[in-house]
Amino acid sequence: MKIGKLEYILLAVAVIVFLISCIVTERSARIAVILGVVEEIIPESPKVALTFDDGPHELYTPKLLEGLKERDVTATFFIIGKNVDGSEEIIKSMQDDGHLIGNHTFSHVQLSKISDDAACAEIWKANTTIFDAIGKIPVYIRPPFGSWTEELTSAVEMQVVMWDVDPMDWKYQNADRIVNHVLSKAADGDIILLHDVYPASVEAALRIVDELKERGFEFVTVEEILLD
Ligand SMILES: [Zn+2]
Predict the structure, then answer these.
(1) Where are the domains of the chain?
(2) At the top level of CATH, which class does the domain 47-227 belong to?
(3) Which pTM does this prediction carry?
């Protein structure tokens, strides 16, 4: 069979494509090695997650959201379902600003003290209410009082989020005390518990952000901490 001009051209094109792909692959491999070395040389910044329970509050939550936005920081909000009514715009702003929204039951009940059926109803009622506001069902739950049972883990298939640092802001409601407690404890990978329903907590949260940023910390959602 005689090889025509067209076949020669096609063969030449195939060879050129093959050679280019070899060069690109070789370069990509080199770049990957260089990036790997760079990652090892430059350590990652320590990360912490601010979490806010019991909101939203009509005054203090918007103030907090404004402060977090100014500082380009994302956080996680565990919302009480019954607080959603009338606060839909606040929750939408949370979502628009990139914060993670989680479930804190519908009426802030101690889940281990009620039947599993009643506990599931509390959780799903909150999920439905949040879904109606933002079009997304929460994946994460913080049980009020940290009260949870193994049975609930298999019943609701949500990820439970506890905490590492608890300044008991709801009890003291003193910004200096909250700030000092968190700054003395916060370490890489910590989840910090606060409540966006007290003015002292909001003031403290923003001061904590400023100070920990100064120390090189990065603020992420709990999802980023838990998936890391
Ligand atoms: Zn709570």
Answers:
(1) 1-43, 47-227
(2) alpha beta
(3) 0.83
